[in-house]
Amino acid sequence: MEKFYITTPIYYATDRPHIGHAFATLHADVISRHKKLQGKEVFFLTGTDEHGVKIAEKAAEENKTPQEYVDETSSHYKEVWNVLNINFSDFIRTTDPKHKEGVFKFIKKLFDSGAIYKDKYKGLYCIGCERFLAEKDLINGLCPNHLRPPQKISEENYFFDLQKYLPEIRRKIKTEELKISPASRRNETLGFIEAGIDNFSITREKVKWGIPFPEDENQTIYVWVEALMNYVTALDFPDGEKYKKFWPADLHIIGAEINKFHTVFWPAMLLAINEPLPKEIFIHGLFTVNGQKMSKSLGNVIDPLALIEKFGPDASRYLLLSQFPASEHGDIKEEQFIKKYNADLANGIGNLFERVLTMAKSADLRGKDAEILAFYQKIQDDYSQKMNNYQLYEALAAVFSFVKKLDQYINTTEPWRLIQNKNPETEKILNTLIFGIKNIIVWLKPFMPKKMEKAENYLENLGQSSEKLNLFPRI
Ligand code: ME8
């Protein structure tokens, strides 16, 4: 059986998950379900990033130890993923002993590779980003992402000699041995490399909440360096059976703001220790809410649980993935959720299924309409291509153009009239519609697994239930 290893970013255990985190995780879940339906053996990893200054600060604000704090915040992620029906294979926490063990082994190999050296460092550090910023990155002296001034830091750190690996990374990206999609993000990475990227430190002095650096007790491992290693420590790097079976990753899914860490730093660390690179990194855009960055102070952070309470888990999955193409940045307008729910789900799929299933109960079904069949084939090809390129929004758009086509087909053929007149054409029309619905169910299964299962069961027992399917009640 062919394997498929897919990962999400591991999210900072600083707070409850918001719909941005859900967006990335849903992408991975839908792709993972789609690959399983294609018969692949899938390993789907998600988890939480639990070390660093930011977490230690948050814990202190709440008078908790960092460990107590992350135990609580990490559990929120698990809770929300459970309600959203995210079917992960493993949930890694960077405070897991297993992660720490793997990190030590990775660091030892890095050290042995000769790519590590000690140096004095002076720089500007943004705790929100957990990274050093250059003067040119600041806007009015503030980090543009977190709108707070960076700390001036002067430390002695261990550094990774990135320069040694940049030409090879560039070559692998160009030949697509390391595929970065969409192409705009690939060009962005090539642009970073072209402009020059400094070596980065792999340790921090004075940061207590982290994994100790085995070579020097005054240092902890830089949070980003050990966080990236989660993708292999979860598989029991370097000797575990899972590692041998599933590495390299077939797909890392990440957001645009963490591009450089994944497309440059992570491959460079793997190159240094002679391990295979991930095959593909898919970088999705970030979204604002009603035109503004989501932030607690603006009060516009959307909690996935609030969305689920209103629309249920499957519709919430759909609503988040159907807003805009993941290859671009987007804006979510809250009032659009209800409109889209009613238009696409209640009046679109729900209504189509109801109309057809009510009529089909009484008919003897045979034959198919040639034009609809040809249209179906076109949509099937389009859907497969989009799903294989991880373009979920575009795949959904293809499915919905088929829903529309079937609606038009019903309106022009008016099968309800034909049933009354006992017209022989009815069998063919209803059979075509049932065929269409069955395929819509298959296409939408990775997106709305529970609802599609319900529809599938209803279809299998057609004529036996007096109750309506009522898949998406109007809100
Ligand atoms: O960066 N729109 O964690 P994080 C869409 N721990 N997606 C969004 C989003 C938004 N507005 N906001 C967040 C970290 N995301 C590190 C990762 S990986 C080894 C370490 C999603 O909690 C998006 O996928 O800040 C983004 O990359 C991720 O959440 C960052 O989550």
Automatic annotation (TrEMBL):
Ranges for domain Methionyl/Valyl/Leucyl/Isoleucyl-tRNA synthetase anticodon-binding: 369-454
UniProt key word Hydrolase: no
Record has Protein biosynthesis as a keyword: yes
Any one of the GO BP annotations: methionyl-tRNA aminoacylation
Pfam families cross-referenced by the UniProt entry: Anticodon_1, tRNA-synt_1g
Keywords: Aminoacyl-tRNA synthetase, ATP-binding, Ligase, Nucleotide-binding, Protein biosynthesis
EC top class named in words: ligase
SUPFAM superfamilies listed in its UniProt record: Anticodon-binding domain of a subclass of class I aminoacyl-tRNA synthetases, Nucleotidylyl transferase
Family matches, as InterPro entries: Anticodon_Met (IPR041872), M/V/L/I-tRNA-synth_anticd-bd (IPR013155), Met-tRNA_synth_2 (IPR023457), Methionyl/Leucyl_tRNA_Synth (IPR015413), MetRS_core (IPR033911), Rossmann-like_a/b/a_fold (IPR014729), tRNAsynth_Ia_anticodon-bd (IPR009080)
Superkingdom per UniProt: Bacteria
Residue span, Methionyl/Leucyl tRNA synthetase domain: 5-145, 153-357
Protein name: methionine--tRNA ligase
Organism of this sequence: Candidatus Wolfebacteria bacterium CG1_02_39_135
Taxonomic path: Bacteria, Candidatus Wolfeibacteriota
